[in-house]
Every structure is written in C-alpha cells, then in structure tokens.
Specification:
Layout (H helix, E strand, L loop, with lengths): L1 H15 L21 E2 L8 E5 L3 E9 L2 E4 L13 E4 L9 E10 L13 E5 L26 E6 L14 E8 L1 H7 L10 E4 L16 E4 L2 E8 L10 E5 L4 H8 L2
C-alpha cells in the first residue's frame, strides 16, 4: 500500500537530512487526535468519516451519497479496495455504519514531494441514505475565496498531545483562516505554499489538526473549504496548519463525481 511506503520514505528523509524539503503530512507518525480542541457529537459534523484499514488511519468528508473527499497522501488511485469508512459515529472504534470503498481516484497532479494537489476522491461501493448522523457537506464553487480571519472548524481523531484525552472520540477546534502571503512566508524554508493550499491557525499556536487528522474537513460557513494536509509540527507558534484548498479543484471534483 502507498501509505506504508510513504512512512518509510518520510523516516528515511528525516534521518538523511537536517531538515526535509517539506514537513511530513500529519498522519505519517501514526498517532491520533486534535490539539487544543473539544469533544463533539457526530451530529455536529455529520459529514465526517473515519477511513479504516486495520483501524483508523485518516479522516474524510462525505460530499455525496456515494462519494467521500480525503487527502491524496491518505489513499492513492493504485490502492487496493481494502479500505472502508465508518460513518455516523463519533467513536472511531464502534457504532455508525461501515461502508466499503469501491475505488479511489487520486488527483492526477498530486505531488508527494511538495504535497500539492493533495486530494483523493473515494467512490463507495453502495449509496448511503442520509440521516442526521451522516450527510453530505456543501462544496464551494471553483476558486471561491475565503476571507482572511474567517473562523473555521477542523475535526478528526488526530493527536491531541494530551494522554488524558480519549483517542476514540471525535474532537474539533475553531481556527481562523490565515492570509496566503503570511502563510507562504511562514513556510518559506520549506518551499512555501501553493494556490492549491489554504492555511488556518493562531499566530501563537495552541490549536491545530495533527497526526491522524489528515484527509479530514476544514469547514467555514457550512462549506468544505479545506482538507487536512500538512504542517510543521502540531499547533506550533508561527506555523499554521496547511490544508488543501477545495475551491481550487472544484471543477475536477464535478468532472469525476458528477457532484
């Protein structure tokens, strides 16, 4: 599987250079939970799903009755259809419904070195009927802007950096969107960011997505504006989280999924 190969590459890269070209995507470390957040019921984020293969490894968002959007570094087009998703449960270990993934379509321009175009669409093997516990989230239009400082909600089962937090319970954090130029400057030592990325977080850090949250949703105004992608550390001062900008590939999503 691609995800295991990338873990090996990330470890090798970290040991062979003082600083990697880019910080590794959040899920590489294998730990799980949101930093500086709070527990939420699934009804507060009914679009949120857990991607599973021998347990939770990434997040994702329901965008249609048979489609989920996640990160390109989570699942590749060449992956075997062994992945499943859990929907309708804030507990990533039980409850809700398990649905099989029929196929994965990674964005054709995904670059694992720069983490650009970090998107994968998952077609489900069966159509799901929406309830208050699982339903699709609205998508922005192509290139729809997000105003700087807009308060967003990120959710997932990623690392909280607090051993007292329950690792199986869905958590969320409110984080403001960050000016594109400001974020690009923050990550200048790592090659900067691209137009397919959007940043969110506080200047002083403290609240962020982390390992295990990758592929999950960043939501503003009821729309899925970002996909958890990468960042330097978790909730580090001066380094906001970097998300894949959904509006930048809206036409591709429509072309592939019909949504």
């Amino acid at each position: 599987m691609l995800k295991f190969a990338l873990v090996i590459l990330a470890v090798f890269g970290a040991s062979s250079a003082l600083k990697p070209h880019r910080p590794r995507p959040w899920w590489y470390s294998g730990s799980e939970r949101i930093v500086g957040g709070f527990e939420i019921p699934i009804e507060d984020a009914p679009y949120q799903v857990s991607l599973r293969e021998f347990g939770h490894f990434c997040g994702g968002s329901i965008i249609g009755s048979q489609w989920v959007l996640t990160a390109g570094h989570c699942v590749s087009s060449s992956s075997s259809p062994g992945e499943t998703i859990r929907i309708g449960s804030a507990d990533n270990g039980e409850g809700g419904q398990i649905v099989t993934v029929k196929r994965a379509i990674q964005h054709p321009k995904y670059d694992r070195n720069t983490i650009d175009y970090d998107f994968t669409l998952l077609e489900l093997a069966e159509e799901i009927k929406f309830t208050e516990s699982y339903t699709a989230i609205e998508l922005p239009e192509q290139d729809e802007p997000v105003e700087d400082g807009s308060m967003c909600l990120v959710s997932g089962w990623g690392n909280t950096q607090n051993w007292m937090d329950n690792p199986r319970v869905l958590r969320a954090a409110n984080v403001p969107s960050v000016n594109q130029q400001q974020c690009n400057q923050a990550y200048s030592d790592f090659g900067g960011i691209t137009d397919r990325m959007i940043c969110a977080g506080y200047e002083k850090g403290g609240k962020d997505a982390c390992q295990g949250d990758s592929g999950g949703p960043l939501v503003h105004g009821g729309k899925l504006i970002g996909v958890v992608s990468w960042g330097y550390g978790c909730a580090e001062e001066g380094f906001p989280g970097v998300y894949s900008r959904v509006a930048s590939v809206r036409d591709w999503i429509r072309e592939v999924s019909g949504i």
